[in-house]
Design brief:
2 domains; Nucleotidyltransferase, domain 5; 5-stranded mixed sheet
Length: 319
């Protein structure tokens, strides 16, 4: 299987799809990956999950993905399209993966064509945050809305935006990267930039925030789960760290609301793991920072919860 030098052909997509039609989804991550068959109602019928072992590089990973995909196709004939949810940066229009930090060696990989040629299916590639936004638009907290934004608040601080059913990308197929925007001139570093929204707002950045804010107490990065436990037990330092994080997320939501005016901004991992107290802090900051009092944007946790990653891969196939 050749991974580079392939000529990219445009793939025709049917935008009308029955809820009963079968879809093949690929959720590709640096730690684990999953391949699943489901339908256009967001229901998972069969699933294979396995460690990514990303250090092996793209060829070995893609071989595993194709093996699982081919097996599921045989067990469930009638799959009409495939979708891929994968971290960026990407060129979605060309179906190319462009060196994600969690996938070493994935440099200009023409993933859409590789999978499409092997599986004999139309394949749609989506940035993982955009795929999550689309899943929530179709089956979760964005149902009935025209403009849906999703913030990952997890390993990174990614954003997906769905406008009238279509995921938003730039003219050259790039996804919005709010995590790389500088939030403050000081603070921890996130993805190579000090004080970025990712450095403050990502779940994985809680430990970095603790080391930066309280270097005498924490000389090495502390786990986010430990900080959450300490905060629940009344530890003032841990509570302050979580407030710094929640304020950054609330400020990001206010900026998004002023710029894009979405109907809803749905929040990922941290909303589930830190719960109502964290969400209240996010909403309080949002209310302080939003322009005027006539804004209609609401802030809410993503509704699909632990199903979101699987649904995001299926949502990518709904075209």
């Amino acid at each position: 299987m050749t991974l580079c030098g392939l000529r990219v052909e445009p793939i025709k997509r049917n935008i009308y799809m029955s809820d009963t039609q079968l879809l093949l989804g690929f959720d590709i991550g640096g730690t684990k990956s999953a391949v699943l068959v489901g339908n256009a109602a967001g229901e998972v019928i069969a699933r294979r999950e396995f460690p990514s072992q990303a250090e092996r590089g793209p060829q070995a990973m893609i071989a595993d993905l194709l093996a699982a995909g081919g097996e599921l196709q045989q067990l469930h004939p009638g799959v009409v399209s495939a979708g891929v949810s994968i971290g960026g940066p990407l060129n979605v229009k060309r179906g190319v993966v462009l060196s994600p930090p969690n996938l070493p060696g994935w440099d200009a990989i023409l993933l859409r064509q590789i999978l499409g040629d092997a599986l004999k299916l139309p394949v749609n590639l989506e940035h993982d945050a955009a795929a999550c936004a689309k899943a929530e638009y179709l089956w979760g907290g964005g149902r009935g809305c025209s403009r849906v934004c999703y913030l990952t608040c997890g390993t990174g601080f990614g954003m997906g935006f769905v406008l009238d059913g279509k995921t938003y990308y730039s003219g050259d197929g790039a996804s919005p990267e709010i995590g790389h925007v500088r939030y403050k001139r000081e603070g921890p570093e996130g993805f190579g930039k000090i004080g970025s929204y990712e450095a403050y707002g990502a779940g994985a950045s809680l430990g970095k925030l603790a080391v930066w804010a309280y270097p005498k107490r924490w000389s090495s990065i502390v786990a986010g789960e430990e900080l959450a436990r300490l905060a629940r037990e009344g530890d003032a330092d841990a509570q302050h760290v979580i407030r710094l994080n929640a304020r950054a997320v609330g400020d990001a939501c206010a900026m998004i609301a002023d710029l894009l005016c979405p109907d809803v901004i749905l929040l990922g991992s941290l909303a589930r793991y830190l719960g109502e107290a964290w969400l209240t802090q996010v909403n309080s900051t949002f209310a302080e920072e939003i322009r005027g009092t006539d804004r209609v944007t609401r802030i809410a946790p993503a509704e699909l919860g632990p199903r979101l990653q699987d649904c995001s891969a299926l949502a990518a196939a709904v075209e």
